[in-house]
Amino acid sequence: MAVDVTRMRSIARLRTNSHDVVTRRSTIRAASDVTRLVIEMTPNEPAICPNT
Prior knowledge:
With 52 residues, this protein is an all-alpha fold. 85% of the residues lie in helices and 0% in strands.
């Protein structure tokens, strides 16, 4: 019983760690998507409002 409990605890810990990693990756992916959108929109700004 004790061995099973420790095994279950270690599995739960691994699951929480992997979940944290997944959430971190998703937030990083979202941030990179936002920066990509900004980079894509930036070259079009001079054509829309010419400040030169």
